[in-house]
Amino acid sequence: MHVTRLSLSQFRCHDRLELALPPGLNVFVGPNASGKTSLLEAVTLLVSGRSPRTNWLREMIRWGADQARVEGVFAGATGSPDEVTVTLTRSGSGEAQRDLCLNGAPPASVGAWLQRLPVVLFEPDDLQLVKAGAKGRRRFINMALAGLRPLYLDDLLRYRRAVQHRNELLKQAARGRASGEDLAPWTAQMVRAGAQLMADREWLVEHLGPRAAALYADLSGGTEALELRYRPNVQAEEEGLPERMQAFYEALEAAATWELRRGSTQVGPHRDELLVLIGGKPARDFGSQGQQRTAALALKLAQAQVLTASRGEPPLVLLDDCLSELDGSRQRHVLELVGQFDQLLLTTAGEVPAGVEVAHQVVLPPA
Amino acid sequence: MLRYPAPLERVIEEFERLPGIGPKSAQRLAFFLLSRPRDQAQALGETVLLLHEGIQPCAECGNYAAARLCPVCADDTRDKLVLCVVETATDLMALERAGEYRGLYHVLGGALSPLAGVGPAELRIGELLERVQRYGTEEVILATSPTVEGDATAEFLRQRLSATAPQVKISRIALGLPVGADMDYADQVTLARALRGRTPM
What predicted TM-score, i.e. pTM, was given to this entire model? Predict the structure, then answer.
């Protein structure tokens, strides 16, 4: 998939900007604070309704303006192009209102939206995927699966909602105001959605693992191997859905006293871990900064490959200033690897390594 | 700031408190009424005044009724051995419009939601169990909405019913594809759910 036209109005530091973008490598060059990253942010907003930089939509509206508007035209391998518009309108002192529009009408659901336009964003912060806690890796898995399976996001939201209701009842139960009978239906909802999440995550890591390992070997040229291992918080002997549900119920049973004392759900996929191992050791604790960075890159590239395989067409790839830490030959190599995809949008404050073919360059003036 | 005369302001404010009506719609509605003959506003006012006078919950199922029983419960051609449980009276009306169902209903008055402070005591669950006993109900269809809350409510009712009336057949309304819509155009989540909830042939 690629974006052929991008237009911004009152978005971040941009007053008005119209870009026509060809397939292949598009480079956005400019000094710091010239709004390069905002262009990638605008594309992310168009395909997901969210920003990778902030949880506040209102921050994307230009200072002093009441409304920001982003429009994009996305062309896939088949079918007619999709026209997407997102309008953000300031409302009082609270969060801005977001209006999504896909080919002239609001999309049926956010799930359908995320499914439609696959994008993979590489950013400097990706390092935290390997370096920081399990939360970031769960988020990565969630985003990857939301782009692959229509029901994943639905299951995830149902799971979270059931956990919230259940936690409320656990707090009430601790004060003697709720019984096991009150808890049971919420536990059932949580277990059913949770088992499905575990099955989907297992599937993803099965397909992500070998690809990430091959990419890591290629990028590092080293002898130590990368390995991904899905470590569900609830371990089941077998992989079927009924077995996972059974194991989940047993784990809850074992944690019952503890749950009542803490007033919250103590076991389940909200505590899953994705282990990233280099040479058999957790990269988080034992990897060098360089190894961690390469591992994060391999994870993201593998995600893009799985998306390509399962959808039959490559995602749009966004690279936000994430090559600067790599040496020239490594940079070239990464660009070759992502060159297999349809279109790349790359921001840089510096130079594109020599020998890399650039389809289009946009130079942004200083702010 | 210039304000409208007080009677107009008050009407706008009242409209604004209605669901789905924002400040602009409220203003438009108020001006519309003002522009029409006096009779129309009079008629609207009187109908609204009588709303609560004329309506009461059906003594059996909890549906809106103009008499002691709602039209469904008063209809003696209905199959009294089947009971369909819905969250609200509007859900009941939606099912009635489908015209397929010939049994009775039971309106719960919402769905369980610990976060919103709705527990079993806030819903008409005791009445449901009592009716099942009294009618000798053979089948209960759980038609709460397919949300987490609706599903948990159905699950809760299933447990209660199988404990108090083990002979009753319990079923859950199916999730499916919109009829007439091409598979091609069905939204992905609906299609995926229908596939997951497939039934053996």
Answer: 0.87
* Interchain proximity B114–A184, CB inside 8 Å: no
Q: Domain B6-54's class?
A: mainly alpha
* B90 burial level (CB within 10 Å; 0-12, 13-18, 19+): exposed
Buried-state track B162-195, b at ≥16 Cβ within 10 A, e below 16 = eeeeeebebebbeeeeeeeeeeeebbbbbbbbbe
- Is this prediction's ipTM beyond 0.85? no
Closest B-chain CA to A177: B119
B187 touches chain A (CB under 8 A): yes
B-contacting residues in A 90-119 (Cβ below 8 Å): 108-109, 111-112, 115
Do A283 and A357 belong to one domain? Answer: no
CATH class of B64-200: alpha beta
Using the structure block, give the residue that is written with the tokens 């939201």: A157
Q: pLDDT digit string (tens) for A198-244?
A: 999 999 999 999 999 999 999 888 778 999 999 999 999 888 999 99
CATH, residue A222: 1.20.1050.90
| Torsion of Cα atoms, B115 then B121 then B123 then B126, to 10° | 150
Segments forming the whole domain that contains residue A15: 1-118+315-367
